[in-house]
Amino acid sequence: MDYLKTVIPSQLVADRGSNLVVINPGSANIRIGLAPQDAPLNIPHCIARYTNQRPKFNLQDQMLNSQVTTAQHMEREKAYDTIASLLKIPFLDEEVANNSFPRKIGRADGYNPQSGRSVAFQWANVYEQDAGTSKSKGITGESVEKHEGTGAEEIYSGNHKFRGHIFGEEALRISPTEPYCLSRPIRRGHFNISQHYPLQQVLEDMHAIWDWILIEKLHIPHSERNMYSAVLVLPETFDNREIKEMLSIALRDLRFSSAVVHQEGLAAVFGNGLSTACIVNMGAQVTSVVCIEDGVALPNTEKTLPFGGEDISRCLLWTQRHHQTWPQIRTDMLTKPIDLLMLNRLKESYCGIKEGELDAVAVVHSYEDGMPAGSHKTRLTALNVPPMGLFYPTLLIPDIYPPPPRSWFHDYENMLEDTLHMEYSRRPDMSDGLFPGISVGYPMWESYPIFSSKPKKEEKVGLAEAITSSILSTGRIDLQRKLFCSIQLIGGVALTAGVIPAVEERVLHAIPPNEAIDTVEVLQSRTNPTFVPWKGGAILGILDFGRDAWIYREDWIHNGIHFRSGRKYKDSYYLQAQATCYINS
Question: Distance between CA 260 and CA 51 in Å, rounded?
Fold first, then answer.
């Protein structure tokens, strides 16, 4: 404690952070880096594997309900007109008067694109740089041998050899004509498990992605992995079983010497130097709300909304097509991931929340069957409508991806529940060698007791209602007033222009009139909102306030967690005073 009071932060980082790898996985991207770094790597959380099956380019994903129903269409159009009335813009089918530009193609007069907006993505190179080597580009021979499911003779094409695995953004830029299967291990805040994408493959893919990043991006080989510890900063959406599986990946497969789990919302308050706040995490596919009081997450305040930035991007495309401003090109972000990259970039560059018409001249790209990208200059319209889907979610139609089946879960223990006073028991017949070091199943978890806590539910409300409901559920007027003035927006969507005043205004209007609350304030983030939880995880890992919360590799592999030893991974959510004292000093 005396050390923490006297040491300067930079020295603390140097002393304790050099061997800490902070991992913050999300549905679309994973943020990962060494604790002393200013910002983490932000990499699409996906892998493309070579396959000799047909069709050539296949997405191993959840798209069973990809057709929008008539009722959903009507709800979406109704939401659009409600938003148009609020923003004082024409309704969906109303002609725009006095518009000097054609609705389909905009003029180039005075067009001054901002840096990076009009640069086309390039198709990924799927061939080895050196066909004579036994290694795939960007992955070690050991990893190829472990993860590659086809023989070398099957991945030659003429004089070229296909790469066995392609990761990250490069995987999203593979042409549909190439023989690859694209997989995303996490979808909508859960493991992306389906009949065609079993749990074991999800875990193997996650391991392969993380291992590739550690070796190729952070330059930490297997031989040095035992010198590093992992800080897992995990979203509130994950179930207890999913958390355990990710701990196994970190400790058993990636070979970290030790690991600790921190909740994303809790890490976010530390990332911005706070101790009490309402954390609103607006990610690519899920938006979550949770209240933190004095460094403790309040379980009953958790809300999960099944939409995020990718849904806003889809809505942007729908809006332009309805107004006939989109070029006559084949754009499909569900089956052609490179289109998703383009639409995300357009959304980030041009969408915002403000009253009045918001149009922009932009360059849209078409990507067809491995051909060079085509450029189409057009005038995009109603760019302030898609982000308003945060408050009117029927505009977004989030049911494109159904949730993974819940049948494989055997315990629904909530990540936020207080376990400090629960009595746990290990089955007496559980031996030290029960958990094998190979990927053939997880018998260890069968030895854990099953708790009858209810599974997490997604809320079918807009963002303002979710924030208001979360804060009011605390039940104490003093805390409610503090939280309404300490709202923190994190995640990529938090970068949307105009989102802060929009949240403040709409949350204030959502508070029931009988509540004695008259002020709502969103706090400005001290750093990029996308990286706040990762930074908070780095701070928590460096402070090392709860030594009993750390789990060691040998303990995990051979014995699981001995509950009677007092080492429970969820202890990390209940902060000791020294950490709060240090952050507030």
Answer: 36
Tell me the per-residue pLDDT of 195-226, one tens digit each, with 9 for 90 and over: 889 999 999 999 999 999 999 999 999 999 99
User: How many C-beta neighbours within 10 Å does residue 473 have?
Assistant: 14
| 474 and 577 part of one domain | yes
Which amino acid appears at position 336 of this protein?
Answer: K
Kind of pairing between the strands at 258-263 and 551-552? antiparallel
**What per-residue confidence (pLDDT) applies to 195?**
83
Q: What is the dihedral of CA 544, 548, 550, 552, to 10 degrees?
A: 130
The answer to whether 411 and 448 have CB atoms below 8 angstroms apart is yes
d(CA 553, CA 533): 24
Q: Are 147 and 208 in contact (CB under 8 A)?
A: yes
**What are the CA-CA distances from residue 363 to residues 102, 175, 222, 342 (Å)?**
15, 21, 44, 10
**Structural tokens at position 281:** 């995490």
Examine the domain organization and report whether 415 and 555 are in the same domain.
yes
List, as one string, the DSSP characters of 36-60. Answer: TSSS-EEEE--EEEE--SSSSSEEE
Please give the structure tokens belonging to residue 29: 């991207």
Total domain count for the chain? Answer: 2
Residue 88 belongs to a domain:
no
Look up residue 293 and give its DSSP letter: E
Mean predicted confidence (pLDDT) in 566-585: 35
C-alpha span between 579 and 583 (Å, rounded): 6
Q: Is pLDDT at 31 greater than 60 in this prediction?
A: yes
Both 133 and 280 in one domain: the answer is: no
pLDDT confidence tier of residue 159, bands split at 50, 70 and 90: low
Strand 287-293 and strand 277-282: the pairing is antiparallel
- pLDDT tens, residue by residue, 465-512: 999 999 999 999 999 999 999 999 999 999 999 999 999 999 999 999
Confidence band, pLDDT 50/70/90 cuts, at residue 338: very high
Nearest alpha carbon to residue 207 among 165, 265, 236 = 165
Is 288 among the domain residues?
A: yes
Do 439 and 423 sit in the same domain of this protein?
yes
Measured CA to CA, the distance from residue 395 to residue 386 in angstroms comes to 8
Q: Give the separation between CA 139 and CA 365, rounded to whole angstroms.
A: 31
Q: Are residues 548 and 437 in the same domain?
A: yes
Q: Are residues 135 and 267 in the same domain?
A: no
Are the beta carbons of 419 and 267 closer than 8 angstroms? no
Contact between 301 and 470 (Cβ < 8 Å): yes
Nearest-angstrom CA–CA distance, 193 and 61: 9
* pLDDT at residue 160 greater than cutoff 70: yes
Mean pLDDT, residues 316-337 taken together: 92
Average confidence (pLDDT) over 225-250:
94
Locate 89 and state its tokens: 């813009």
Residues 419 and 503 both lie in one domain: yes
> Which has the closest alpha carbon to 444: 454, 432, 457, 456?
432
In a domain, 562, yes or no: yes
Q: What is the pTM of this model?
A: 0.81
Q: Is residue 263 part of a domain?
A: yes
- Predicted confidence (pLDDT) per residue in 442-463, tens digit: 232 333 233 333 445 556 799 9
Lowest mean pLDDT among 40-44, 396-400, 455-459: 455-459
Residue 167 sits in the same domain as residue 250: no
For residue 153, what are the domain limits?
47-64+122-183
